[in-house]
């Protein structure tokens, strides 16, 4: 989008330009990307975008759009540029202090919600490594209130907790968020333990997708073999959970067998679930 003196850029012109521009940069969903950046620039919906397709942009609007397009061309995630991400039908504010919610994590939430439906007593739920708070906020929003005695989110990052508290407010739910290092601080026991911990091994970070470099390193890898948190959970399960409680973890597909072995001797039942790509993605079970 060159600065051409006297050139008028309409919304439709910019959609055509942006689609070609982002395709050349190797950005997936090029047309959707430029549409969403236009919506964010102009503070309008995608429906309005097409109703107003012949609307020319002012120079200050073009300047803002150029900045956004430049950031996306450098592979900064679209969600960080617009400051929003959608998860399980809800909207969450995000920035580079929190991991962007992934569609596969909806499987983890689905599994917990299905488990809650089968329970006769209200549950004490804790989500460890909560980030944006998308997991406990979604559960609090979608589950029947009588199924939840309390629901909490823990994260080592103060910035993440700040965002999670804000996300609970905008989604109109009550979740108790607090900053803690699970390797140093004691936690209250729960009947449901949830975590989507950093499970990339340190060597995987070398060849990661460019977009991942913008996300918080601490939320992606344990700087070891990707198993540090699962090892901690399995070794400390009875100080973290009441007997008969259930744990639910998102996992790296390569680690399913190893993690299952960690928990099999302390579990009365254990299950591994696949994502839509057929990869092992969630492990859950009940403890003795």
Helix/strand structural class: alpha/beta
Strand content: 15-25%
Q: What summary fits the major beta sheet? A: 7 strands, mixed
CATH architecture of the largest domain: 3-Layer(aba) Sandwich
**Widest β-sheet, arrangement of strands:** 5-4-3-6-7-9-8
Distance between the termini: 62 Å
- Provide mean pLDDT, rounded: 96
Order of helices and strands: HHHHHEEHEHEHEEHHHEHEE
What is the level 1 CATH name of the largest domain? Alpha Beta
Q: Helix tally?
A: 12
What is the CATH homology-level superfamily of the largest domain? Vaccinia Virus protein VP39
CATH topology of the largest domain: the name is Rossmann fold
Q: Which term fits the overall shape? A: elongated
Radius of gyration: 22 Å
The helix content is 25-40%
Helix-strand blueprint:
Elements: H1 11-24, H2 30-42, H3 46-51, H4 59-73, H5 78-82, E1 84-87, E2 90-93, H6 105-117, E3 123-128, H7 134-142, E4 148-155, H8 158-170, E5 176-179, E6 190-195, H9 217-220, H10 228-235, H11 237-240, E7 241-250, H12 256-264, E8 267-274, E9 280-287
Parallel strand pairs: 3-4, 3-6, 4-5, 6-7
Antiparallel strand pairs: 1-2, 7-9, 8-9
Short recap of the structure:
The chain is α/β, with parallel strands linked by helices.
Note down, in words, how this protein is organized:
The chain folds into two domains: 11-74; 87-287, Vaccinia Virus protein VP39 (Rossmann fold, 3-Layer(aba) Sandwich), CATH 3.40.50. The protein has helices at residues 11-24, 30-42, 46-51, 59-73, 78-82, 105-117, 134-142, 158-170, 217-220, 228-235, 237-240, 256-264; strands spanning 84-87, 90-93, 123-128, 148-155, 176-179, 190-195, 241-250, 267-274, 280-287. The chain is of the alpha/beta class and 288 residues long.
């Amino acid at each position: 989008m060159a600065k051409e003196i006297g050139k008028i850029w309409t919304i439709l012109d910019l959609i055509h330009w942006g689609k070609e521009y982002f395709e050349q940069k190797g950005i997936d969903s090029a047309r959707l990307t430029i549409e969403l950046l236009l919506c964010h620039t102009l503070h309008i919906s995608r429906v309005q975008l097409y109703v107003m397709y012949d609307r020319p942009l002012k120079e200050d609007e073009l300047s803002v759009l150029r900045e956004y397009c430049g950031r996306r061309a450098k592979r900064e995630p679209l969600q960080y540029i617009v400051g929003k991400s959608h998860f399980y039908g809800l909207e969450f504010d995000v920035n580079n202090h929190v991991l962007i919610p992934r569609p596969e994590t909806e499987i983890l939430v689905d599994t917990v919600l299905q488990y809650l439906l089968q329970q006769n007593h209200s549950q004490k739920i804790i989500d460890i490594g909560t980030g944006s708070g998308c997991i406990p906020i979604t559960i609090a929003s979608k589950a029947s209130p009588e199924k939840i005695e309390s629901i909490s989110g823990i994260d080592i990052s103060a910035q993440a907790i700040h965002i999670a508290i804000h996300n609970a407010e905008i989604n109109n739910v009550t979740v108790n968020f607090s900053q803690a290092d699970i390797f140093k601080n004691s936690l209250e026991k729960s009947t449901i333990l949830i975590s989507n911990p950093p499970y990339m091994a340190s060597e995987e970070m070398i060849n990661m997708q460019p977009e991942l470099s913008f996300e918080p390193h601490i939320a992606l890898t344990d700087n070891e073999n990707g198993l540090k948190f699962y090892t901690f959970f399995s070794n400390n399960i009875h100080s973290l959970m009441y007997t008969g409680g259930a744990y639910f973890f998102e996992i790296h597909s390569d680690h399913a067998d190893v993690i299952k072995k960690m928990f099999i001797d302390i579990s009365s039942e254990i299950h591994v679930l696949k994502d839509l790509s057929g990869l092992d993605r969630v492990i859950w079970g009940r403890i003795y």
